[in-house]
Each structure stands twice: as C-alpha cells, then as structure tokens.
Amino acid sequence: xxxxxxxxxxxxxxxxxxxxxxxxxxxxxxxxxxxxxxxxxxxxxxxxxxxxxxxxxxxxxxxxxxxxxxxxxxxxxxxxxxxxxxxxxxxxxxxxxxxxxxxxxxxxxxxxxxxxxxxxxxxxxxxxxxxxxxxxxxxxxxxxxxxxxxxxxxxxxxxxxxxxxxxxxxxxxxxxx
Amino acid sequence: xxxxxxxxxxxxxxxxxxxxxxxxxxxxxxxxxxxxxxxxxxxxxxxxxxxxxxxxxxxxxxxxxxxxxxxxxxxxxxxxxxxxxxxxxxxxxxxxxxxxxxx
Lengths: 177, 103
Known about the structure:
The complex is a heterodimer. By secondary structure, chain A is an all-alpha fold. Chain A contains seven helices and no strands. In chain A, helix 1 (6-27) runs antiparallel to helix 2. Chain A starts with 5 loop residues before the first helix and ends with a helix. By secondary structure, chain B is mainly α. Chain B has a single domain, classed as Helix Hairpins (Orthogonal Bundle). The longest helix of chain B is centred in the last third of the chain and has 31 residues, at 60-90.
C-alpha cells in the first residue's frame, strides 16, 4: 500500500530543494544571492544526511559549512565590494560561444559517465561491522568519536596540524604590508 | 521498496549536484562564485561517501567526510585570503583577469 514512506517523501522534498537551490546558486548574478542559496543547499543536504543515519555529519555540515564557511564567504563578498568587479561591463559578461559549447560538452560527458556508473554498477562486497541498528544502540557520535580517536588518530592529528597551517597562512596572506 | 533504492537515488542526486557544480565552475567568472561551486562539488562527493558507507554498513564514510570538511574549511580560509589580496592588487576578482603568473 504505502509505496512511498514518510522517509521517501522527506528525501524527495529535500533533494528537490537541493537541486533547485544549487541551480539558483550557480546562476544568480549577485554573489550575495548565490551565497544565500548555497546556505539553503547545505541545510537541505544536512536533512539528507539525517535520512542516511549520519547524524554527526549532519550537525557538522550545518555548523562547519552553513555556519563557518558561508559566513567567511559572505564577509569576503562584502569586503570586496563587487559592483566594481565582474558582470557589470556589458559585452564581457558572457563567455564566448566556443567556450560555452566546450563547457556544455564536458559537463554532458561528465554527467553521462556518472549516469552510466549509477545505472549499471552494482556495489558488491561484504558489509562492515557497523550496521545501522548497532550504531543506533551506541550512538552515532560516539561511534565516530571512537573511530576518530582510535583507528584514525594519526590522520586526525594531521588534520589539526593542517588547520593550524591554514590559520597561519590566511593571516600571513591577507596581512597588509 | 523505497529503502533499498535510497542509496541509488543518493548516487543520482550526487551526480546531478556534481554536474551543476562543474558547470558553474567552468562558466562563471566571479572567483567567489567559482569557489562556491567547488564547495558544491565537494558536497556531492560527501553525499556519495555517506550513502555508500550506509549501504555497506560501515562507519568509515563519516570519518572520511569529517576529513574532507576539515580540508574544505582550510581551503576556504586560505582561498578567501588570496581573493582579498588579489582584489587589493587589481581591484577585481574576475577570474579572467588573474594573469599575473603569465610572465
């Protein structure tokens, strides 16, 4: 009877929002509008992560992407006042025809390849040791935490070093001489 | 009926998102919008990781997505600092006008 469950309705709604918002993000002229549509995209993707039983990643998506990165991008857009930037001088606002044809070709090939992979490739392989019921019994965040501080401790430390380098690099690059 | 197709639909959605990001990154001229399109492509890859890990009942997808997010955050900080510096130098962050390395 119920061909499509509540989960299915939520997934379809969220994925339509993601696609619409990302198309709007890629096509708006004003970069601030682009950034705001990008935030909508990130929130809808967090909903999809929740449907896929990845609660930790959903929260991190909202906090890191929609919170930190988009805030940074919005600040930079306001810092470099864009009216002097692109897409104001007529005649240069569009790519040349050749470039657009090549770009369309590249993206059609790319999408065709991915479609072929999705349609004809069936993933095989044995299941891992974290089925959804087991993870739910312990808690998603706890499981990820145990993995991060156990098996993946060394990459985790390298990630923290990378963040440190990023902070220093951003300050040094953006500093006024 | 829907549950077993969820992974498949996620792959499809991720392909669509990656293609939208690629079109934007190729065609747009504002560096910040190009940057946001690249973030969108990273998000599409994250979605594949989560969906595949869910269907294989593995937890490694979440860990990998965590690291991808870390790298994306660092990339955002350094990249936006570079954009601010380029804007200070040539009063524009148009991708076509960044040709200082051309010699």
